[in-house]
């Protein structure tokens, strides 16, 4: 009698546990079948996902997909401001070089160093390097570890399990899962999905990883009204960093650890006889990067290779050069390249 009672209790527990686990198992099946982050399987193209992807991972996969058919030897690296630099525009100054963009959102100089090391291990020719930096990227001396930023094992050296664990965990977080399932079921974009769902279609070139920014279409359609319609993205209440027409200098970001990482980058470039150009982005807030940081960059990479466009200048004065306060447009990127390569023959 006692054994029957114990068996019955065990069965009830198993049934309750099964009921509790069923939703989790169902979602796990959805994750493995749909591969929302495009990390579980190999794809020939990564330019058509409805989900906002890990740009560091995607850029590397696109490079690996195409490197055998296209002799990439020139690399655009840095944070999301690399969107202002189109490969075909840069190639005008490269004497036949073929370029690809290998960036990461909120990229750190640690990540840039790791990517160059990975290129070297893969036998890549590193003929030209265009680094797009700002004070935030200079200050980051560690690899970022969230699913949006983690680098693939081939670059970072972490295990495959640790890499995939981050994406699987991220899938189950409500701030991703709810908008993802909502969009998957109803195929309708809602404002709360921002940062999770990409409603614009292709936002990157399938070969070079150049940005295809939907805001260019908005500017074309809205004209001058664009900047009026989006003025809240340029001015935020109680923003102590907002431009006020006076010279302001940012704090120092380059200390011993950051400087050592920059020297690692320089050593790889010297080994490959790489032509390096560093652009310090034109910050819409017009805060000048700290002169001590600029001096360190010039000491390491050469005075003729570092170009500081931060602060108050003709580029940051014109709001038409910007999509919003954090990102500037390819029309400005083309002008800056022209300035950088002014002595190009």
Protein model, in words:
The chain is of the alpha/beta class and about 350 residues long. It has two domains: about 1-30; about 55-155 and about 205-340, Rossmann fold (3-Layer(aba) Sandwich), CATH 3.40.50. It contains 13 helices and nine strands. The chain has helices at about 1-35, 55-65, 85-90, 110-120, 135-140, 155, 160-170, 175-185, 215-220, 225-230, 255-270, 290-300, 330-340, and strands at about 75-80, 100, 130-135, 250, 275-280, 285-290, 305-310, 320-325, 325-330. The mean pLDDT is about 90.
Question: What kind of assembly state do the chains in view correspond to?
Answer: single chain
Number of domains: 2
Rg, Å, rounded: 23 Å
Shape, per Cα inertia axes: globular
Unreliable spans are none
CATH fold field value of the largest domain: Rossmann fold
**Cα end-to-end separation:** 95 Å
Task: Identify the strand order in the major beta sheet.
Answer: 2-1-3-5-7
Protein name: Histidine kinase
Question: What labels describe this entry?
Answer:
about 350 residues; alpha/beta; Rossmann fold; 2 domains; five-stranded parallel sheet; two-stranded parallel sheet; 13 helices; 9 strands; globular
């Amino acid at each position: 009698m006692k054994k029957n009672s114990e068996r019955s209790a065990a069965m009830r527990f198993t049934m309750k546990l099964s009921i509790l686990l069923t939703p989790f198992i169902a979602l796990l099946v959805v994750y493995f079948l749909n591969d929302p982050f495009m990390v579980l399987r190999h794809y020939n193209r990564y330019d058509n996902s409805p989900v906002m992807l890990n740009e560091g991972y995607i850029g590397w996969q696109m490079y690996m997909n195409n490197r055998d058919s296209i002799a990439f030897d020139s690399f655009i690296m840095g944070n999301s401001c690399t969107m202002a630099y189109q490969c075909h525009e840069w190639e005008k100054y490269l004497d036949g070089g073929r370029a690809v963009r290998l960036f990461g959102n909120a990229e750190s100089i640690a990540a840039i160093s790791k990517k160059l090391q990975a290129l070297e291990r893969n036998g890549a020719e590193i003929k030209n390097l265009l680094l797009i930096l700002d004070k935030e990227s200079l200050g980051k001396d560690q690899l970022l570890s969230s699913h949006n930023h983690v680098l693939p094992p081939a670059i970072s050296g972490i295990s495959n399990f640790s890499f995939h664990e981050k994406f699987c965990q991220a899938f189950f977080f409500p701030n991703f899962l709810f908008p993802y399932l909502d969009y998957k079921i109803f195929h309708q974009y809602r404002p709360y999905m921002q940062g999770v769902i990409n409603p614009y279609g292709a936002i990157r070139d399938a070969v070079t990883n150049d940005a295809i920014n939907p805001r260019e279409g908005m500017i074309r359609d809205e004209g001058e009204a664009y900047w009026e319609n989006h003025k809240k993205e340029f001015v935020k209440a109680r923003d102590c960093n907002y431009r006020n027409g006076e010279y302001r200098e940012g704090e120092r970001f380059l200390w011993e650890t950051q400087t050592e990482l920059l020297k690692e980058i320089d050593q790889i470039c010297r080994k490959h006889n790489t032509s390096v150009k560093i652009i310090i982005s034109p910050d819409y807030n017009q805060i000048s990067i700290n002169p001590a940081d600029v001096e360190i960059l010039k000491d390491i990479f050469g005075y003729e290779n570092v170009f500081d466009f931060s602060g108050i200048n003709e580029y940051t004065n014109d709001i038409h050069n910007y999509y919003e306060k954090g990102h500037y447009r390819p029309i400005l990127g083309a002008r800056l390249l022209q300035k950088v390569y002014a002595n190009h023959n």
